[in-house]
Design a protein that fits this description.
single chain, 237 residues, alpha/beta, FAD/NAD(P)-binding domain, 6-stranded mixed β-sheet, 4-stranded mixed β-sheet, 5 helices, 15 strands, 20% helix
């Protein structure tokens, strides 16, 4: 039995769990993957790395500004490019933007920092939720060679993507409103592919253009030179 169970160790789940723990609650984060961060994803290859989920963090309000300051004060985040180019009519046009922050060690470093003092159960998929008297009971997917006991908590926070959350919440129709379920079902995600390409160190040089957007292209949206985020590491596109 714990005070609060948080399902999902993405940015939202880790920030929420950290704040709850600082408020004095015993919190357990349950994550289906072996890694942390969800879309805070970094792929390591050839002595370099590339962010293939969240590309950067930027100020989107008071709370995100506070998080960026904490991470910057601890030298996890650093300011990145102040200019993103747009491809318009086959021409590159510089578009000054608000500050964007990246991590020299890869964006997953943000998740590792946030999870440092948390109890995180990795590789544990929640397959069902059952409300009982004054608590929630989480059924975890059993491993091939050992059963996993259910996790009980007095409160529950679900931070996984809406299509995944629907599967867990729909059986609780008697405990949640119909309008909430309808809103949850209406959330859709567009598919996206991330491609990572590397090039020989002989071509290493400071890039003239660090990031490009393609507003006129329905298939290609973003291209960045990942090594511009971490110049001390071997370059990757």
């Amino acid at each position: 039995m714990v005070d609060i169970a948080v399902i999902g160790a993405g940015l939202a789940g880790l920030v929420c769990a950290r704040q709850l723990q600082q408020a004095g609650y015993r919190v357990v984060v349950v994550e289906k993957s072996r890694g942390l961060g969800g879309r805070l994803a970094t792929r390591r290859l050839q002595n370099s790395c590339a962010d293939h989920g969240v590309r950067y963090l930027e100020n989107q309000g008071e709370l995100s500004q506070q998080l960026i300051k904490i991470l910057s004060d601890r030298h996890i985040l650093n300011p990145w490019t102040a200019t993103v180019h747009q491809m318009q009519d086959s021409r590159l046009q510089p578009m000054p933007t608000s500050p964007r922050y990246t991590a020299s060690a890869g964006i997953t470093a943000v998740a590792k920092f946030l999870a440092a003092d948390l109890e995180v159960w990795r590789g544990q998929r929640v397959v069902a939720i059952a409300p009982t008297a004054n608590r929630w009971e989480l059924q975890l997917e059993p491993a091939a060679d050992e059963p996993i006991p259910n996790l009980r908590s007095r409160a529950l926070v679900i931070t996984i993507p809406a299509p995944q959350a629907v599967v867990l919440i729909e059986p609780l129709a008697s405990a949640v409103s119909t309008s909430f379920l309808e809103k949850l079902r209406s959330v859709e995600f567009e598919p996206c592919l991330s491609a990572i390409a590397t090039y020989p160190t002989v071509y290493q040089q400071e890039p003239a253009v660090e990031a490009v957007t393609f507003p006129q292209n329905s298939e290609l949206t973003w291209l960045s030179v990942e090594s511009s985020k971490r110049p001390a590491i071997a370059r990757a596109l």
